[in-house]
Amino acid sequence: MRPRTIGLWVYLVVGIAFGVVITKAEVISWFRIQEMFRFQGWHMFGIFATALPTAILSVQVMKRRARTVHGEPIHLAPKQMGSGLRYVIGGVVFGLGWALVGACPGPLFALLGSGVPVMAPVLASALAGTWVYGLLRPSLPH
Predict the structure, then answer these.
(1) Using CA atoms, how far apart are residues 113 and 66, in angstroms rounded to an integer?
(2) 16-34 tens-digit pLDDT
(3) CA-CA distance, 101 to 94, in Å (whole number)?
(4) What secondary structure letter does DSSP report for 73?
(5) How many CA atoms lie within 13 A of 26 on its CB side?
(6) Are 28 and 110 in contact (CB under 8 A)?
(7) pTM
C-alpha cells in the first residue's frame, strides 16, 4: 500500500474511534445539549473543560511533529484577532444553529451513523455551507 493510502486509513480509523467515544459519552445526545443550553446539567460543560486543554496540547504536538499524508510538515498560520466582532457574530450564528438543530457540526457524522436519519439534511447543509464558504473566502474580510 502507498503511504498516502495508509494515512487515509489511519484517519478513517481515528474518525470511527472518535465517533464511538462521543456517542458513548452522550456528546451527541440532543437531551444533553438541551440540558446544557438550559443550564440544567453540567455534563457537556465538563466535556468542554477537558476538550479545551486536549485541543491546546494537540495543536502544540501538531505544530512540532505532525505531517500530512504526503509527509510534509503541517504549518498552522498564527491567528490574527482583529476587533472581535466577527467572532461574536460567528459564535451567535453557530450557537443558534446548534440550539435549533440540537447538534454541533462535529458529531453530525456520528449521529447519522448511529441511526438518526433526520440529521442527513443537516449534514448536507453543513457540507454545502462549508463549500460556499470555501468559494467566498477570498472575498471575505479576514
Answers:
(1) 28
(2) 898 888 888 888 887 888 8
(3) 11
(4) B
(5) 13
(6) yes
(7) 0.62
